Amino acid sequence: MPNRTLYQAVIGLEIHAQLATKSKLFCGDATSFGADPNTHVSPITLGHPGTLPKTNAKAVEYAIKMGLACGSTIAKENYFARKNYFYADLPKGYQISQHTTPICEGGQVAIQTSEGEKPIQLNRIHLEEDAGKSIHDLSPTDSYIDLNRAGTPLIEIVTEPCIHSAEDAFLYVSEVRKLVRWLGICDGNMEEGSLRCDANISVRLKGEEKLGTRVEVKNLNSIRNIKKAIEFEIDRLIGLVEKGETIIQQTRSFDASNDTTFSIRDKEDANDYRYFPDPDLAPFVLTDSFIDSIQTTLPALPNQLKKDWSQQFGLNAYDIDQLCENKLEADFYLLWTKHTTLYKAAANWMIGPIRAYLNEEHKTYADLIPLLPQLSELLNMVDQHLLNFSVAADKVFNAIVLNAVSPMEFASSNQLLQNSNEDELTNWINIVLNNHPDKVEAYKKGKKGLIGLFVGEVKKISKGKSDPQKTTQLLEAILSK
Ligand code: ADP
Ligand code: MG
User: Fold this and answer.
1) Could you list which residues have their CB under 5 Å from ion ligand 2?
2) Strands 215-220 and 250-255
3) pTM (2 decimals)?
4) 304-337: pLDDT as tens digits
5) What is the pLDDT of residue 360?
6) Is residue 159 lining ligand 1, measured as CB closer than 6 Å?
7) Using a 6 Å cutoff on CB, does residue 214 contact ligand 1?
8) What's the rounded Cα separation, in Å, for the pair 349 and 343?
9) End-to-end Cα, the chain, rounded Å
10) Do 383 and 444 sit in the same domain of this protein?
């Protein structure tokens, strides 16, 4: 095994996120996933002579949204450039991208690591169009091309070479995926290729300033594979350096069948692409008022909610992270806080029984919105010890989601209400203690664990109605006399 401790890994990530616009970046072809091959392909997508591309304003807006959410500087003057290369899935022979004028510069995405929050610095976010898709696994002899994807708008989010572990890379990609979904600009679906990541990796001796020669690993279609590919590459590169070999700048691919990478080509340089400004697309200039108008549509971001919700609702960081897994969940929570002040209980119900129910029944939060009054009443009943939590979660919750019942009416007509009346509980307790003088003796001598048995016996003679919490309190008081 190579000696990792002498070296520092340096990682820079490029994430391509497909923007969730209805149409492509430069024409009206639909972007929907899963259509019959080559059905969303107009002459503009094919770059036929005489066609004129036109920039999709929604895509520009989405790119700006991402930049504002990351604290990037938004460029006022924007140009598109042609990146020329030949490939079968690139019918025009060039890809339209932003070579020297990315729409967003700088900015950062914060990740939560075991050592605390770390900012990952962004170099830029630029707009570009996607290529088509080559399909190699449908036939043993032929490759197929589907051009539906050609021209779909992408943003490429590029970090500085400032990440130093596979784990941080993992956290960063998770955070970016969460953010694009939160903003509603990309569905973040890695299996369908809506979010793709290339990892640039180099190693250097600790303390050294100069960056080592990098390799770029492509085709990473899950966050777990990104981590595995980086771990593999770090070891491989350190191994090469230790053997005194020269690392060559390469493009590599990840092989998920054995968690290794292999070389696909030596890396091209920018001058190989003969970039030049696209003569068919006028530069577009963004005004302050346009950028400001987008700023006002930005939702509160999870990091902001973390501060707000701990103050407003007394939630801990874990609860907030859970509720901010996705925006629908966070929005539902906020809506619920308009119906109840049992903030912590509402969070617990969402993270526990409600999530389980939505998963099992394939329902969404939207289905629960009309039931918020009943759900809030349910929280109250548990809070006031009228129902114990498991009966509430198993029986009453189900009745609410099935038939929108009033929890109070349902619980009383089904004899589910708990008894927390002190006189009645004390009566039952006295019966139980009288029946078990030896156990009472043992308890008083220190066998405190017997409390559970007493609580259970009280439950039995109350036919399941005794409130266990209240019973325990009363028992402790009576037995300590
Ligand atoms: P290209 O245009 O070839 O994609 P960029 O300069 O845009 O190259 O860099 C792509 C990514 O590679 C960025 O995330 C950058 O931080 C990262 N990167 C550049 N040099 C190195 C290096 N020596 N080691 C690790 N990552 C690097
Ligand atoms: Mg690149």
Assistant:
1) 14
2) parallel
3) 0.86
4) 998 899 999 999 999 999 999 899 999 999 999 9
5) 95
6) yes
7) yes
8) 10
9) 67
10) no
